[in-house]
Amino acid sequence: MDYLTVKEVAELKGCSERYIKRLCKNGVIRAEQELNCKGRMKYIISVSVLSDDLQKKYYRSKKTETGIFPEKTDNQSNKKTALKYRSKGIKKAFEEFSESERAEIKRWTELLTQWQAERSERKDKTEFDKLFVAHQKYLNPDLEISTDILYRKYSAYKNECYAELIDGRGGWNKGKSKLNDNNIIWQSFLSLYLDQSEPKVSKCYRMVNAYIVEEYPELMGEIPSEACFRRKIKTLPFAVLEYSRKGEKALHDHCIPYANRQKGNVYANDVWVMDNYTFDVIIRQNDGSEKTKRMYITTVLDVKSNVLVGWNITESPDSQSTLDALRFAMMRFGIPKYLYFDNGREFTALDIAGEQRNRKVSRNKQGNIPITIIEKLGIKLIFAKVTNAQAKVVERIHRIIKEQFCMGQYGYCGGNITERPEILKQNIKNCTIETESELRESFADFADNVYNVQPYGSSETKYKGMTLIDVWNDSIRETEFRKASADVLDLLMLRNAGFQKVKRDGVFITYHGEKIWYYDKNITWQHIGEEVCVRYDRNDLSNVRIYDREDRYLYSWECADWLITRYFSESREKLAKLGHGQADVVKQVKARARELRGSVGLTQKDGLRYIASRNTGKFNIQQPKNIIVVTADEEAEERMAVGAESVVIDMKKIRKNSEMRKK
Fold first, then answer.
1. pLDDT at residue 391 above 60?
2. Where does the pLDDT of residue 78 fall: very low under 50, low under 70, confident under 90, or very high at 90 and above?
3. Pair 369, 510 in one domain
4. Same-domain check for residues 562 and 501
């Protein structure tokens, strides 16, 4: 639809602009309003609301600008023409074309007019046509032209079929297909194509042909070409293709809307995000050996400024690497308010996240977990939603590390085999790849002197033109800054082994599946059976700190290496050391027992005697007054004895017979 300004309508109507504005304001002419370049409202008027005479006058002027002359009156005598190509197109009114279509008509009209003007002066017109086409291809590489096209366009121009001057590809038939959505052929194809095995179009096309021949032979003539299927696939929603061919995770990652977090109310050190990344770099050992390996990095990113506040390069991304990266970041930039964690095991360790983690806690530990490291630091935890790629904003820096840092290293190996450079084998063979110490040094230089000083490119326009570190420095002035010394951080970030009872061998921690015992010869034996919390530093396992259930510090115990012996063939020195340690404990226990008994020397026999003498005279039997006398019935006994034979019992004879039987 064409729109005119007030000035253009006034010139077309032959009146003043003020008059046209008044008509628009009073509603005589329906007009729309929009802002001009100065921010003021202006009227725009559609050509369709003008009178028929004004519309004809407007389109007549447009045709003249295009180079098309006014329509000729029909004349039967002029129907015959000597043109080789006769246009069979349908005539359309000039106002039915859009602005872009008119521009294309104008382009071809000018080209055809130029061609005819130059052609009329040449005798070898056929040869000139070829030269003209070749010259236009050189001047306009985007123009689709040949001698046949030139003749057809000129025929359409002479017959006033201007629609044929327009490139009709993707025009009137755009979006149309021989395949109907309810067609059994198309549905059969989709049942094969929309599968997570991601089959190719050509494979599905062959299967559909075989299926239709077998089940619906009457439809064989209706199967279009493979290209038709490819064009039809492009009309399917992208979200449907992602879900059907790649799965639900791809749907959530690429198609489902997610929250755009605004940073206006967030300040520096409010939220830090942590994640792990595998360096796409193969390095050598520092000891000069030819062994190669790949390292991991735990990164800490400030959400407000995108500054890489801390990191830790390690051979295994475990919970200790998480704490080391966090400690390094806090030593440089202070303590954050929130930590945004992934759901990996290195972030959900029991002494880091406690019961906040998204992992099950055994029944015997529920509600029986010591205060965590994060709680000691006064930090709150946020865990990313599982499979939510958009939530882990720190992963964006990993792509930057790969593109700006890893690709510049001699040991760059790529994220997969297709990205691996051919020169890598030669670099490994020539030992030109970096060592571990070189990797650590060069990354520290890259992080602070390349990445952290690059221009800020986030959504907050007030920081435009500033670097990342400048944004952090500017934002931290508007909020509180919490800082701790190295000694305080070492205490606050001690790992804990949970609550345990002191055993006869002391307390223990588990390190790589092995128990390490800690004992104090002067103290441990006094607290056997008491429940304590053991805290330790993974970088120094020589001693542990003991706390009670209220997290009050009690003692520091040394590693009891003398308690650990081999099952067979232990050295005499080690056994002697164990014996001396046991003897020391026994000696202390005996001394303490003697100290507790004191010098009184009271025995149990003396105690019984003192009790008996104290209770002398208390034992007295008193008979009651209501006594019932019990007598024997002698008459009955006499009756039972009358007529009975007397029996003599010889005890000596019985004893003698018993001894003979035993023999």
1. no
2. very low
3. no
4. yes
